[in-house]
Specification:
Helix 20 links the parallel strand 1 and strand 2. With 478 residues, the protein is mainly alpha-helical. It starts with a helix and ends in a 7-residue tail after the last strand. It folds into two domains: 351 residues, no CATH class; 113 residues, no CATH class. 64% of the residues lie in helices and 4% in strands.
Length: 478
């Protein structure tokens, strides 16, 4: 099917697939550490949920982990139970995901707008910096949910009942993308209901939508008190600088970095809207994402990933339009030159996206399970390694500055690192035995000479031959 679809552009299609694979598999060979802030968190979630059968039997997970929706882990758990190594999901499987998602988007776009647009989707996707940044941040749930979302849009346009299944998976895989999906379909339904509400097919489709919502609610039920409820009031009330922006570069950074893609996307959006004379699901997703980003609504920086993603096919429509309309050799050379310049800038920024921790710390983290007793509390002394430790110590209570179960304030941490022995004793005596701190290279590099007070404290005992610092002044466990 794909071969027939791209018959006219076979050489370009194959060359772009090769470039796509090189781009997303390069980090696998360039670095010995997975990209992203969350590999350890995902490792913990993959392993822990594999011990249960979500959503019917929720695994015994730590409280912080209940904020993660279950959709991705419903799919991963059977594979892990069958023996697939969990680290594959942090390695080559994850590297393959953005390539497969973009190929799927290309195929759907080719069916909807023509093979030249399908090829252009690959070009725009390879150039896109937000798309790569989402990959380098290991946004597993977001990419999985986007995949379900584009297939649901395609199936809805084909009036296929399979859209019920893919729609449910979109909602239960990622909160933010699920919200975008619900708003996009809701807007599309509202704008279409006046024309079709008497149609039996439309009524059945509406019933199908209600079934999707009901199933999604059932799946969310075990985690809804943490994953959904705390965000409802902020979502409805917070605006501008008062709202959490999300850990993603600001929109202005991307607009400056890739003006070609942004301009093409807006142009293609307007051109397609004028041609269709109606707001499609694809238009709705791009429009709502733009509202979140530029009106600074909840997690507005993170919504630029979805905005960029749903502008990709419209940018591809515009690129295909200009290439077809302006066939003069000079103009086409100009288009190629502009694309190459954009590719150069994307490549330079891509080089800046490197692993969050160094190889020495990663090696320490991945071997901690050999020296840390199971069931004990383990506290990182800096916040970068803590999110990794939790993945390689799933049977321990891991914490770090501002992370997980330890609710210490900045003042508490200042007293721990820089305070007197007496101040530290008051703080450490509130912990329960057995508790260990981890002396990482990142901790030493950050605090330098300031670490000696903590390391020489009489309440701290080094576990010989390990990076562990046992808290001997902690309370006895019950």
């Amino acid at each position: 099917m794909i071969q027939a679809m791209y018959q006219k552009h076979r050489v370009a299609f194959l060359a772009l697939i090769a470039l796509l694979l090189v781009k997303f598999f390069a980090p696998l060979f360039l670095y010995d550490v997975p990209l992203g802030y969350d590999p350890g968190i995902y490792r913990y979630l993959f392993l822990t949920h594999a011990n249960g059968l979500p959503p019917f039997i929720l695994a015994d997970i730590q409280p912080w982990a209940t904020s993660h929706p279950l959709g991705l882990f419903i799919l991963s758990s059977p594979f892990i139970k069958a023996g697939v190594p969990v680290d594959w999901f942090l390695g080559w499987i994850w590297n393959l995901v953005p390539a497969l998602l973009l190929l799927s988007f290309s195929s759907i776009s080719a069916k909807k707008w023509g093979s030249s647009v399908g090829v252009a989707v690959l070009i725009i996707g390879i150039l896109s910096q937000p798309y790569y940044d989402g990959f380098s941040g290991m946004y597993w749930k977001a990419y999985a949910s986007l995949a379900w979302m584009i297939f649901t849009f395609y199936l809805l346009e084909k009036k296929s009942p399979w859209a019920v299944i893919t729609g449910v998976m979109t909602l239960v895989t990622h909160n933010q993308t699920g919200l975008l999906f619900a708003l996009s379909v809701g807007l599309w339904w509202v704008l279409s209901v006046s024309k079709h509400w008497r149609s039996p097919k439309w009524q059945r489709a509406t019933l199908g939508g209600l079934i999707v919502c009901a199933i999604a609610y059932i799946i969310y039920a075990p985690v809804i008190h943490v994953a959904i409820m705390p965000h409802l009031i902020p979502l409805l009330t917070l605006r501008g600088e008062n709202v959490p922006a999300g850990s993603f570069p600001p929109a202005l950074f991307y607009v400056r970095l890739q003006p070609l893609i942004f301009i093409l996307g807006v142009y293609g959006f307007v051109q397609s809207l004028y041609k269709d004379r109606s707001l499609s699901l694809w238009h709705s997703a791009a429009l709502i994402s733009a509202i979140f980003v530029f009106a600074k609504l909840y997690f507005y920086n993170r919504f630029f990933l979805q905005l960029d993603f749903f502008l990709i096919p419209f940018a591809a429509v515009a690129l295909s339009h200009f290439w077809t309309r302006y066939s003069a050799h000079t103009l086409r050379v100009g288009i190629v030159f502009i694309v190459l310049v954009q590719g150069f800038f994307s490549y330079r920024v891509m080089q800046l996206r490197q692993p969050e921790i160094d190889e020495e710390t990663y090696d320490l983290v991945t071997h901690l399970h050999e020296v840390v007793p199971s069931g004990t509390s383990v506290i990182a002394l800096e916040n970068k390694s803590a999110t990794w430790m939790v993945g390689w110590l799933p049977d321990n209570n891991v914490a770090g500055p501002g992370l997980f179960w330890l609710n210490w304030t900045y003042d508490h941490w200042e007293k721990l690192i820089l305070g007197t022995d007496a101040e530290r004793k008051v703080l450490l005596s509130k912990l329960r035995k057995p508790t260990y701190f981890v002396d990482t290279p990142m901790f030493r590099e950050y605090y330098k000479e300031d670490i000696h007070g903590l390391l020489n404290d009489p309440c701290i005992a080094r576990v010989e031959g390990t990076p562990l610092l046992e808290v001997i002044c902690a309370k006895e466990s019950l």
